[in-house]
Amino acid sequence: MPKIKRLPDEVIKKIAAGEVVERPYSVVKELVENSLDAKAQNINVYIEEGGLGKIVVEDDGIGISHEELPDALLRHTTSKIASFDDLYYLESFGFRGEALYSIAAVSKISIKSRVRGENNGYELIAHAGEVINLTEVGMAYGTVVTVSDLFFNTPARKKFLKSGQTEAGLIRQFIEKIAILYPGVKFTLFIDGKKIYSSAGIQEQLGLLTRFWGLEKGNLLTLEEKLGEGFFIKGGIALPPAGKPHRKLQVFAVNKRLVRSGILTKAIDDAYESLLPNGLKPLVFLEVVVPGTWVDVNVHPQKLEVKFMDEQKIYLDVRTIIRNKLVNAKNSSLKSFSP
Ligand code: ADP
Ligand code: MG
């Protein structure tokens, strides 16, 4: 009979990392979300070799004090929640305290941070999750996380990755989407040393959206509707016949978090039913805000999906309001053409 034994720590680490850190894009997402949680106003992202060579995320947020720097790398250590019920009132992306732990387990990581009021920052270096050094460094206020040699100790994971170009494309799409969701924050993305995207950080959401879709402002309908107590939808949708043969430029967000949502996707598809030429998918940026108790964000390790408690209500309310908006817009444009 095989005996039940506890796995060695380094195996536990790699298994945990496998769930959170699927690919370079997941690292960028976790680090950028940490920067947003730290109330950064400027976030710079640098990618080399599709993120396998190097990923740097630099912010001007609140920082991590040097006493706490080593704790940031531990599993289930977080400054963001203290009890399970806090999940219902979550105002941060993070809550598991697993991202830095997981990323560190499969890379060589440096976390430099300087909090307001301190004369210097501190840099923590770890390889495969083992702390190697903690030293004082000169730096601006904020945090710089550098992840090098991602998956150097999990060669199988590395082998399955798509090309650097695919990864860079995915990362760019993510940065553009999150910049639209947080138009007050300035995001800049550098790929292999070249600046390829920058948002202005001046709340100009409509401009970012038209740029993302390659459309004129006149082709967009903006959304801002209260559907109930604590229940809002915001964002923008493209007027037919503008659409795309794929869904890559669709953006869904729930309570300020980018998500994939089958129910929202279906609500939008059904709202556009018969209004778009065959084969085209709607261009939509839909931000849904609901009371924390209506939604469970804790259903997916990478938090890419959320679960609504009452899916039917969300579906019907969203579909109805968007359908009405589209039909009204169509009718008024028809009227303006008639003599
Ligand atoms: P979580 O975000 O779920 O708390 P992480 O592993 O991503 O877990 O981060 C652990 C902790 O490290 C955070 O709770 C936060 O206190 C701190 N931290 C991480 N990144 C930053 C950052 N860019 N600025 C300030 N603090 C950070
Ligand atoms: Mg986090």
Automatic annotation (TrEMBL):
Domain of life per record: Bacteria
UniProt-recorded Gene Ontology molecular function terms: ATP binding; ATP hydrolysis activity; ATP-dependent DNA damage sensor activity; mismatched DNA binding
One of the record's GO cellular component terms: mismatch repair complex
Keyword Cytoplasm: no
GO biological process: mismatch repair
DNA mismatch repair protein S5 domain mapped to chain residues: 209-327
Keywords in alphabetical order: DNA damage, DNA repair
KW 4Fe-4S (keyword) present: no
Function: This protein is involved in the repair of mismatches in DNA. It is required for dam-dependent methyl-directed DNA mismatch repair. May act as a 'molecular matchmaker', a protein that promotes the formation of a stable complex between two or more DNA-binding proteins in an ATP-dependent manner without itself being part of a final effector complex.
Family recorded in the similarity comment: Belongs to the DNA mismatch repair MutL/HexB family.
Name recorded for this polypeptide: DNA mismatch repair protein MutL
Source organism (scientific name): Carboxydothermus islandicus
Encoding gene per record: mutL
Part of the full-length chain shown: 1 to 339 of 573
